[in-house]
From TrEMBL:
PROSITE patterns: HTH_MARR_2. It comes from Deinococcus cellulosilyticus (strain DSM 18568 / NBRC 106333 / KACC 11606 / 5516J-15). Pfam families: MarR_2. This is MarR family transcriptional regulator. InterPro entries: HTH_MarR-typ, MarR/SlyA-like, WH-like_DNA-bd_sf, WH_DNA-bd_sf. Residues 17-151 form the HTH marR-type domain.
């Protein structure tokens, strides 16, 4: 396309959109830092952040791969790959799902529960250190805002051409 080709008119950002855009950049940075911390937290157990997400999302009764994927905002295929590895390593097992004939439940084994407990203990130490001097009410407000942003993002998808 030539430089003379018609381009869409530039729409200025509203003040809220400008602030939101800055927040998105900060969230990208935080995502990297949290992922890095997660890898350090899980490394002593021989796990990864991706495996931790799936281990933690199974819950007490287990969950289907599709449910875990929806809950975590991940693709079903990526959760399936991790779930299969967790099963091969004896940290999880597939069981019949009374609510669905084909979608098995992924359930923590005793070994999986022990690994998750180790990871959670390390996460508690890390969270206590990170949150040490932060204002609890401000963190709660941030949590509420993040939930609102999540809901907005779920209903306001980017338009593809």
């Amino acid at each position: 396309m030539s430089a003379d080709a018609a381009s869409p008119p530039e729409v200025p950002r509203t003040p809220a959109a400008e602030t939101f855009s800055q927040v998105v950049v900060q969230i990208f940075r935080l995502h990297g830092l949290i992922g890095e911390a997660g890898e350090k937290i899980t490394r002593p157990t021989g796990q990864s952040t991706a495996r931790w997400q799936v281990l933690g999302a199974m819950g007490e009764e287990g969950s289907s791969v599709a449910t875990i994927a929806r809950r975590m905002g991940l693709t079903r295929q990526s959760v399936q790959r991790v779930a299969d590895v967790l099963e091969q390593e004896g940290l999880a097992e597939y069981q019949d799902n009374p609510c669905h004939k084909r979608a098995k439940l992924l359930v923590l084994t005793d070994q999986g529960k022990a690994v998750l407990q180790q990871i959670e203990a390390a996460q508690i130490q890390w969270a206590n250190e990170v949150a040490k001097d932060l204002d609890v009410d401000a963190l709660k407000t941030l949590g509420h805002l993040l939930v609102q942003l999540e809901k907005r993002l779920l209903c306001c998808s980017v338009q593809q051409e």
